[in-house]
Amino acid sequence: MNGKQGQPARKNATLKDVAEACGLSVATVSRYLNHSIKLPQATTDRIDAAIAALRYQPNPHARSLSLGRSETIGLVVPDIANPYFAHLAAAVEHAAAEFGLGLVLCPTLSRTDRELDYLGRLARRHVDGLLFVTNNGDDPALARALQGATSVVLIDDDIDGTVAPTIMADSEQGGYLATRHLLDAGHRRLAYVGGPAGLSSSRNRVGGFHRAIAEAGSGITIAAELSGEYSAANGRAAAERILALDNRPTAVFAASDAIVLGMLAVFKQRDVKVGTDISVVAFDDVGPLELFDPPLTAIRQPVAAMGRRAVEVMLALIKGEAPEPVTELLPVELIIRNSVKPPHR
Amino acid sequence: MNGKQGQPARKNATLKDVAEACGLSVATVSRYLNHSIKLPQATTDRIDAAIAALRYQPNPHARSLSLGRSETIGLVVPDIANPYFAHLAAAVEHAAAEFGLGLVLCPTLSRTDRELDYLGRLARRHVDGLLFVTNNGDDPALARALQGATSVVLIDDDIDGTVAPTIMADSEQGGYLATRHLLDAGHRRLAYVGGPAGLSSSRNRVGGFHRAIAEAGSGITIAAELSGEYSAANGRAAAERILALDNRPTAVFAASDAIVLGMLAVFKQRDVKVGTDISVVAFDDVGPLELFDPPLTAIRQPVAAMGRRAVEVMLALIKGEAPEPVTELLPVELIIRNSVKPPHR
DNA sequence: CTGAAAGCGCTTACAG
DNA sequence: CTGAAAGCGCTTACAG
User: Fold this and answer.
1) Strand D nucleotides with an atom less than 7 Å from a protein beta carbon
2) What is the reported pTM?
3) Fold of the domain built from segment(s) B171-301
4) CATH number for the domain whose boundaries are B70-169+303-330
């Protein structure tokens, strides 16, 4: 009567059941399972047999309560449906699983209240650590909440006034390479469409843009230097503004794939041919940019490497091996396709 | 000496601390926090004040251990970097959060061992339920593992020999609409490039393809009917085969965005113009298909609705309100863009 | 080396 | 209505 569908719905076996089954104490079995204390072969065989027979599975909640940690980390991102974050999540999960860590998804829609909420879960030890990517790095409330928190590693962007290990792509170099590529193709009238002005990733991308221009000497003009969100909507707006310019740029460097998607939409609509009418270099390279019209040249972020490093640093943090706060810059790469051609005016 | 960085590192306050602080028992405070037993205003004020003063946060592990559930569900998907699953994850997380459920990410790379592993975590009550999308529905080991499991809801595809609530898009109707659209444009020589032959989503898409053709009467020929993975690689291979045909089809219906991406790559490479040389309809519509060359017509899956329904059904399951196992079909939609034109031969 | 026992921080049946 | 106490299932310092 307590059974269901033929098989007896016995409640899960506990460590105690296992111990009793093989005439040992729970302490010994627990130690065997964790510390790998050396036990005579005969004993371990007996334990293994009992575990198999009872189908024993350790209760993770009991373990977490006792240990004070959960062997789980969280990944805080603005939007998991964004391909860049989806790729990052895949990389992070992969690395985390390798180290026996579970991953909980913490999408924020860039709302500070949700970010604070996840920080609260960390404080509550719901997760052992938080991999954090935010667009609100300039929000003092965030910085304040981060003060107490250990076991946070920032990805992509730092948070003003906070020291925490930070993993990022070398955005400055990316901006430089992109712009340099445009310059090399002969462009002299450029536009930059960036992300939020407050974000360091964004600042660094413009920084690289300016460095390349400075390096190229005189004769280069910046037709527009826009900032906004890393979003298609921002890309659309930027494209409108650029097309409305009396003296249009012949090339544009856009600081994210999403921005480029938006720009492409209005270019297509206005029949502006990418490559021939206006050259473009994107940044991220997570979408299927090779299938666009034309295939888009882009700076590729080292997403997989970033995910892995973030997890590794987190592990060190959790183990208390925390070195002084560092920020690591991972190398980007210019992927040349077909959206940059020499200007024809 | 126990402090760190200026602020005293007091250990987290517990329910006991709160109770003592306001001269009540832990039982009362716990009840107040959970059952909302009615207490005099003065009392609740005292409790609230104590909670605020001590910055009390309930320990989720203790709660989970005591309750035997974790208020967390898992989302099992082949690959989170795939935009379709990324969108699904966003939808699921959104709905889950609304009901106070956390979401842990369980990517499998379609490996059965990983799928079984996650099922193990469910058995261990690590998560309260599992939203499960698999490409291995024909694997008997999976079906066996699923026997005991309650609190599993399948998404997209059922698993042979298993009864579990299943949420899916109306793939048959999708296949029908796509094919019908091709037929309406005048195509008489069609190809179908599908997913794994063993998957019901795949079978249903071909099913709709055939229904539309049957309905159109005679004079329609099926130049190719391929199956494989829902992947770009499969799309590439399929495109190669189709282009090698003596008598090429004038239109193709491909059963996923990913497949189409692969096909586009080889079409581009061989200078086969989509729309004019070969018409195509995709399935999923999660990528930025409107930005492709040309913008792609596709069947759109109701991803957001599926995520939400899956969570709702899961909630019912968890509460034990489980109705008899159902499979729900959510409506798809034909999004007409520019990749289908009349054949010119 | 091994075990009895305390402790992790909740929830809730059981008494008062 | 309220509280003392048992229980959830682990881990591990402390004794033997």
Assistant:
1) 1-5, 7-13
2) 0.92
3) Rossmann fold (3.40.50)
4) 3.40.50.2300
